[in-house]
Structure formats: structure tokens, C-alpha cells
Specification:
The protein is mainly alpha-helical and 117 residues long. It is 67% helix and 0% strand. The chain starts with 7 loop residues before the first helix and ends in a 5-residue tail after the last helix.
Length: 117
Amino acid sequence: LKELGMDDSQVAKTIVKFPQLMGSYSLEENLKPRVLWLKELGMDDSQVAKTVTNFPQLICSYSLEENLKPKVAILRKCGFADKEIADALARFPPFLGYSKTRCEHRIHVLEASGCLT
């Protein structure tokens, strides 16, 4: 976890929230690809560390291909750039835990209220 730019307190907090990291969970096969994906979206190291620290169960448990990437695709479809998406997810990571239907509903509500054009 320190390789990902996390300090001691962030590592401790992450392990308390997601103890599976100390067991059979593979950081190399599971966490690193997700972290790289977040960075490719445009998150900086501090945003990634904060997201993983505060919501490790979202980042570590959900399938990158079946859960995380489709949520970002919904936001891209609305016209958001990757950096905007990265900043939004850094501020509100629980969005990644929403079902696809709930994500689409939230976007529809925002569009209907004029918040999104």
C-alpha cells in the first residue's frame, strides 16, 4: 500500500476498513489495476490514496470491467471529461458503489433539473 503513495496512517485505516488486504487478497492482481485505472482517469496520487483509504471496499471489491468502468462510461456519455470524472469520484467515491440503474437515475434527475445540459 505504501507503494501506492499511502502514509502509515492511511495504510492502517485501510486495513481496519478492509482487513481482507492482509489475507488472500492480491494487491498485485486486484488493487494495482484499479489504482492504475483511477490514475489514467486523472486522479493524482493524493486523490487515489484518499479514495482507497476511505472506501477500500468499493475500490477493492468491485469488478473493474463489470462495475467500475461502466459507471464512468455513464458519466462520459453525459459529456464529462475524464479529469472531471476523476475529480468528482475523488470527492464522492460512493458513486462507484451505486447500481447502474441508480447512476442513470441520478443523472436523469440532474438533467431534468437543469443541472446538466
